């Protein structure tokens, strides 16, 4: 991690001092394509590939497991637990063949369709980032509060204890979650407008 950080800091510093702003590529290492030492040029061009290639198996396994969990939550856990022989065999085929193919084919399709790194970063950073950082946690908080309220009404847990433990601070106010969702929606709208304006140019 420290080595990657140092390499990228060095590359960014060299590019910032050597190239004009309009000459800088989206992928910083592409600025060294015509470097005198061919071996260094090849290494720098392949450096992002090596770092991403090292993390891709972990990301792919995580995505496959998340898809599997999502399907099990929507369909119930009967497929995983067995059931009929055909159903278990079909689920095993989906788990072992279909899901890995989906995980592998999607990034390959994106890489084949476009080379616009700025657009990819904009989409994944804005839409995906907003969903992961704001929308999903807010929805989880809303679902958790609903669940806790159900426990309090059923008498399983003392309402006073729930109020003292889980309802403290500004974030405990009901309007805050809706404020965060509204802010996220506004951000997504502005990003979408910005992306559409870029496409028109």
TrEMBL record:
Q: Which residues form the signal peptide?
A: 1-16
- Record keywords, A-Z: Membrane, Signal, Transmembrane, Transmembrane helix
Give the UniProt entry's GO cellular component terms.
membrane
Please report the record's description of how this protein sits within the membrane: Multi-pass membrane protein
Task: Spell out where the chain crosses the membrane.
Answer: 97-114, 120-144, 175-193
Q: Where in the cell is it found?
A: Membrane
Q: Which PANTHER family does UniProt cross-reference here?
A: TRANSMEMBRANE PROTEIN 104, TRANSMEMBRANE PROTEIN 104-RELATED
According to UniProt, the name of this protein is Uncharacterized protein
């Amino acid at each position: 991690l420290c080595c990657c950080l140092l390499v990228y800091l060095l590359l960014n510093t060299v590019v910032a001092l050597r190239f004009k702003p309009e000459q800088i590529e989206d992928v910083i290492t592409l600025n060294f394509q015509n470097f005198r030492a061919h071996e260094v040029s090849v290494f720098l061009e392949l450096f992002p590939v090596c770092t991403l290639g090292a993390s891709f198996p972990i990301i792919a396994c995580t995505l496959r497991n998340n898809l599997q969990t999502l399907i099990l939550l929507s369909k119930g856990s009967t497929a995983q637990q067995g059931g009929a022989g055909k159903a278990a065999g079909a689920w095993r085929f989906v788990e072992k063949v279909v899901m890995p193919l989906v995980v592998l084919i999607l990034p390959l399709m994106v890489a084949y369709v476009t080379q616009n790194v700025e657009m990819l970063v904009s989409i994944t950073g804005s839409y995906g980032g907003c969903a992961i950082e704001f929308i999903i946690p807010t929805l989880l908080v809303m679902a958790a509060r609903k669940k806790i309220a159900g426990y309090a009404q059923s008498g399983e847990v003392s309402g006073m204890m729930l109020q003292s433990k889980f309802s403290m601070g500004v974030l405990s106010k009901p309007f805050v979650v809706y404020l965060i969702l509204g802010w996220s929606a506004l951000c997504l709208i502005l990003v979408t407008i910005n992306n559409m304006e870029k496409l028109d140019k």
